[in-house]
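Problem: given the chain below (171 residues), write out its structure.
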Amino acid sequence: MVVSFVAGRLPASRSPDWKGIDAMTFTCIELETRRRLLGLSQADLGVCLGLLAPKDPDDPQPVSQHAISRWEEGVNGHDPPPYWVQDSLPEILDRVGQVQEALARWAVPFLRGLEPDVEGVVHVPMYRSDRAFAHAFPKMAGWPASIWNNAVVRAADSLDDGRNYQFDLLR
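Solution.
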């Protein structure tokens, strides 16, 4: 089930036609909680922001882990996310959730196709590095490995097939 982060939210737009209406913005704790709900590290969220809402579309770069940390802390004068992130943050989080859901659906037949070893254990690949993940799944290049890891664990948990799954770390 994908939880929508967009429903009921107003854009935090800073556009010229913005009339100063009190628009809902993500608070620091809400941003951190929603990031954790998706199973993303701060660095992983930065990668997703760079993919889905680059500051410069001609040169997309991840947002630094340090910037995400500052946005989540919201203390000592740190600002909320900038307008170019704030305006699209609910949609970005929805999109990440949709990607995870699609991967989890795809992972079910993938898991069913894995043969158990002689002891009956089904070895499921999980990835520590984004590079190893991109090598195994070229169409997902640029996405963090945690997207796959989260999806495949959820897919395995959804199966009631009596098989013993072991998640193996690939570097």
